[in-house]
Amino acid sequence: MALPRLLTAMDSTGESQTASVRQSEPGLGEEVMDFAAQNRDEAALPGNCNAASTHAAADFSAPTETDRTEEGWQISQSLRAKKKQAKERKFQQGGDFSAGSRPTLDNQPKRRGRPTRRRPPALPKDDLKVVFRPHQGLPLKNVTTQAISDAIVEACQGKVRWDQFILRIRPGSNIALASTPDTTVAMAMRGVTSLNINGRPHPVNVYVTAGEGTKKGVIHGIEPHTPSETIKASIRFRTQSVTLVDARMLGDSQSAVLTFFGDILPRYVYYRGGEKECIPFRNTVQFCRACGAVGHRTDVCPQPDSPVCHTCGMRNPEVNHNCTPTCAICTGNHITGDRNCLKRLKPIRKQAAKPPKKPHKPAPRWFQSEEEESEWEYGRGGTRKSRSRTRTPSKNRAVETGQPGQRHPKSTSTPRAISQDNPNAQALPRSKPPGACPAHSNPQADAVSYAQAVSPTTKDKPVTPTITEHPEYKRVVAENRQLRTELQEVKSRMARLESLLNQSSNTQSPASTPVVSQPVAQPVATQPPQTPPIAFLVQQIQLVFAKLGQMERTISDLSQAQNPRKRSCQSPGAPTRQPKESVITDSENTNHG
């Protein structure tokens, strides 16, 4: 069984650090790591070993055999004591911990996972990012951020204050990153060549990284060590809305990195007139050939004196040891950094796609139905596709002609405005969406689903009362009924008066009537009582017809106010049609007289 060993070592800066190393038994097929060989064979290494590897380690001191035995015993005893204490705590909480019992989630305490390091907050997006990459021998993970910040302020000779930038250390890459919104501060930091930390000067390389909103591409076949200005002057491309920001060579290779500002990377560029394919740039997984650590390069290695085997990655290897190639990045059977390594390049980060913007739909000049108008008022801007509430012309004609057989017999739609001429008419059915099967073939077609029942468009929409429920309509109907009754009485009285006049004219003749009694009896008995009632009745009839016309106009106005469909379907430029008023002609007056 492997036992952890705590070893104390001294790093290159003279500070002590503790590392946990796991020693394996020879019977498991693993090699026993001899940490004492580092001090014995520091000067020379075997021919098949060099200063490159794939694993990071510290410069350990060589423990003796007695220390190794005592240390292993103490570790084993402490582990046994911790297990015993944990078992006692479980028994105190309750539960069966026998060999045949199974642990339950209620009695068993939750197992805490390995603590993970919290990610720091994102730096300001629009700030300039200045990178400080120290040379070999300076591990930034052992230096505080305020010490590096003071060293930067001191190196800038008073041109920069500590409140003008944000400093962050990346221990994996062994670099320091300064974020600042001020261009003058970034320019002053670019001139720094050395940082004085703990009383010792440490040379650094300073450069400014490209911010967000840039794309990088790689072109091949460029002469090595070509200056950046020459590459930028020789590059042309045809992609619109893209600008070339920077160009540099990749080390001693024949490849150059082009940095473009824009959202699109050109597929082809023209270098001195020749067409070259521009491939998306992928960062290489960094590994150190000095200490074998993954995450930083050789020029910034904090422990450049750590002897490792370049082939198998073994630290402090023995002379003439047998090793097989092992990759530190993918653990494959090849040397670390080989071109055939599948994990040698980092994957490209895909930017999250932005949701498409909905096109602005202007308001129509008039609406085709009251449902469309109400939905526009609620901000929906269109008819619902799930359940269409628009009446078809065929059903409208069926209702207007009074043919109830053409209407849908199984309709669960809400009642709508009822016609004035037919107050007992049934509510109009709700039409189905196009392509739906008829109701007689699908018994579940008229069932209201749960989504339609709880829909905010049908649940929260205010119900408009019909015209028959309006109090003004009820008052007008009652008054109309009373006026009709009075009109019938007036007509009956007029008929009786006309019959009396006809009888009196037939009984009296000019020959038989005496001369003396005619001027006295006729004006007093017949003529004076008959003339005033006829004129009065004619005036009353005119007033009745005027009131009836006024009532008809009031009813039509109320019906139009309660039914916006008729108002919306009318053309904006069409003149309004006024109801016909009853006019009594002279012929009618003469007939009644």
Contiguous runs where pLDDT drops below 50 for at least 5 residues: 1-73, 381-445, 510-531, 566-574, 582-593
In terms of structural class, how would the helical and strand content be classed? alpha+beta
Largest sheet: number of strands, sense, barrel closure = 5 strands, antiparallel
Shape verdict = elongated
CA radius of gyration is 51 Å
Give the helix tally.
13
In whole angstroms, the N-to-C terminal distance is: 133 Å
Query: What is the strand content?
Result: 5-15%
- CATH superfamily of the domain at 126-211, please? RRM (RNA recognition motif) domain
CATH class membership of the domain at 126-211 = Alpha Beta
- Total strands: 14
- What is the fold named in CATH at topology level of the domain at 126-211? Alpha-Beta Plaits
Reading side by side through the largest sheet, how are the strands ordered? 4-5-3-7-6
Region (Disordered): 1-48, 82-126, 349-446, 503-528, 556-593
Protein name: CCHC-type domain-containing protein
Biased composition (Low complexity): 512-528
Biased composition (Polar residues): 10-23, 411-425, 556-573, 584-593
